[in-house]
Design a protein that fits this description.
This protein is mainly beta. It has one helix at residues 260-263, and strands spanning 3-4, 18-20, 28-29, 40-44, 51-52, 65-67, 76-77, 88-91, 100-101, 115-117, 124-125, 136-139, 147-148, 162-164, 172-173, 184-188, 195-196, 206-213, 218-219, 229-235, 241-242, 251-256, 268-271, 274-277. 1% of the residues lie in helices and 29% in strands. The strands form six sheets. An eleven-stranded parallel β-sheet has the order 2-4-6-8-10-12-14-16-18-20-22, with no helix packed on it. A hairpin with a 2-residue loop joins strand 23 (268-271) and strand 24 (274-277). It is elongated, with a radius of gyration of 21 Å. It starts with a strand and ends with a strand.
Length: 281
Amino acid sequence: MTTINDRTFDSASHTASHVDLSASPIETIGAHSFDYFAGTVLFSASAALTGIANSAFTSANEASHVDLTLATALSSIGQSAFHQFNGKITIVSTAQGLTTIETTVFTRASHPDSRIALPSTVSTIELSAFEGFAGTVIVASAGNLESLGNFAFQDATGAASAIDLTGAPITIIELNTFSGFEGQLVLRDNAELTVVKSHAFNGAKKLSMTGMYPALTDMPSKAYELAKGIVDIACTSDTFNGNLVGGDDDLSYAVADVDCGSICGADQIMVDAACVDCTGG
């Protein structure tokens, strides 16, 4: 068996149901295959797996486990594929053909032992992709990441999560993208970032945004409301409209709205009214 067809186990309601696909070289899993499946599904993908369609594993029970560690040929995971999935999800960054994390794909997946490490090939993370995700999500290399959707990581509760967007070519951080995110969040020297929208980092627990932002024109104070961490950046755009005011003891911030090229050296940025080497932090 190489294919699970659309709606094969859709809405099977018996909680004692058990489907084990671990020994099968599955290539594709159809839409709604296990949508609202009440039993247990076990699946350890092989290198043969190329695609998981929309709503494939919605709401299977907490004993379920989908392990995509060996799915090196995986190129697509459809919208809501693991929406409200109660079981454990394991994905490591070996699927180099995966470029898009689609809308609501892991929204409110509730198993705290789930672990998803995204490959460096990902360029787009869509609306609510990890909203309310209870496990650990890792983004270690974001050199191709261009787009983050609204609510992409809102209220993702895994304290061990770590997202490093250093140098990522993102242009906009949308409304509530990281609001309530409980993991480590690092942004540094995002040269193409132009706008950070309201509540983008609202309530983020471990925010670090530092370095040079030559294209940044707008980052309202409500972007980081109730956040904990540091915002320490140099904004050199002639049209920068930063309103970094207020804050509390949990957030340290220092924004230098200056032309660093004329005040500091070519390889320096302005931090707390002092020139600092870019390589030196």
